[in-house]
Design goal:
single chain, alpha/beta, 2 domains, 6-stranded parallel sheet, 13 helices, 11 strands
Length: 357
């Protein structure tokens, strides 16, 4: 029996909250990460709200925002502005339209709700997917009263409140993430990109940054046409080399495949060694004349591991596996480096293994 190693890596998706691209990634990742054993989806939502309260609050807000969007379209159609997706209009121009034709007093609030609506609709899909794949939704931010005191402020005051409360919120968020990481099987966290530097620094302080995978996917859209806001997020080194502009479905698939591959490479939470091996690890051992060990891991998968520190000609093994469309990665376990042939108990990998001569 082998004791479980470090938990599965925390996967953080940094985002611009109004941007659809990050939530499309999260929606697509959920079934794949659930297969890997992930069971918790975290958000910048109050820590003292239950999952049902978080979902109910979002549904109520989404219903209201849909009504506001529909009413705004009706008013604009009366003045000849038709067949326009309002959320695609730059914020400055949108606020001017709202001020002139929809609400002379609440035009900023109305414009904000319209801009975030497509992402909010996608978030509903994300919640539905989490439920379908049995992921628990958790809020990790400050309590509801303090949270509302920040996000409910009008735009002119909100940014200063966010900056003022940044240390308090990051301390709360990181503390909750560390606690959940010790209790749950795997965390996915969706977080505003403005918090990236401070949150990653917290991971470094706790010396778990090598157990965190983080990404900043974004579309090629800007909140306002006059400002390339992604550049603002890249003013420090935290998000460099972690930022991905997603323009089409091909871009999204490439990033999703990359994330899953990187998760697999760090997912060393093996439950136990199958001492007698299984038919697939045994076949690999016979073919290569090396000692492949079989390990169970979350998601009911069996991986075949080869100790790199005690075996030679590893590159030859990797190349022969590649020839039958089997990818490998390396991982550290109990102080040694191993070559991993993942999921040998799945039909596809098992069939490909049998192609080896």
């Amino acid at each position: 029996m082998v004791s479980p190693s470090a938990s599965m890596p925390i996967v953080v998706i940094f985002e611009r909250h109004w941007d659809e691209a990050p939530k499309q990634i999260v929606k697509s990742l959920i079934p794949k990460l659930a297969e890997e054993g992930y069971d918790t989806l975290c958000f910048e939502a109050p820590q003292n709200l239950t999952e049902n309260e978080i979902l109910s609050s979002h549904n109520a807000g989404l219903e209201l925002d849909n009504k506001i969007d529909s009413q705004a379209k009706e008013y604009l159609e009366r003045v000849g502005i038709k067949n326009v997706k309002l959320s695609d209009i730059g914020f400055k121009k949108l606020t001017e339209l709202m001020r002139l034709y929809v609400s002379s007093k609440r035009y900023l609030e109305v414009s904000e709700k319209i801009k975030v609506l497509p992402a909010s609709i996608l978030l509903k899909d994300v919640f539905d997917s989490a439920n379908r794949f049995s992921l628990t939704v958790k809020g990790v931010d400050v309590d509801a009263t303090d949270f509302a005191g920040i996000v409910s402020l009008d735009l002119s005051k909100r940014m200063s409140a966010i900056e003022k409360n940044e240390d308090y919120r990051i301390a709360t968020i990181s503390r909750n993430l560390f606690k959940l990481n010790s209790e749950r099987n795997g965390l996915i966290f969706v977080c505003g990109a403005l918090h990236a530097e401070n949150l990653v620094n917290k991971f470094k302080e706790q010396n778990i940054h090598d157990r965190v995978l983080y990404y900043f996917p974004h579309s090629d859209k800007n909140y306002d046409d006059s400002v390339e806001d992604v550049k603002e997020y890249l003013s420090n080194d935290t998000l460099k080399n972690h930022t991905f502009c997603l323009i089409n479905e091909g871009d999204r698939k490439l990033l999703i495949n990359r994330i899953i591959k990187e998760v697999k490479s760090k997912n060393t939470q093996y439950k136990e060694e199958i001492i007698v091996g299984n038919s697939h690890s045994g076949f690999l051992s016979d073919v290569f004349k090396k000692n492949f060990q079989a390990f169970m891991r979350p998601g009911y998968y069996v991986d075949a591991l080869l100790n790199i520190d005690t075996e030679d000609n590893i590159e030859e093994v990797i190349e022969r596996l590649r020839e039958v469309n089997i990818s490998t990665h390396k991982t550290s376990l109990l102080g040694s480096m191993y070559l991993v042939v993942a999921e040998v108990n799945t039909r596809e990998i098992a069939d490909n293994i049998r192609l080896l001569k």
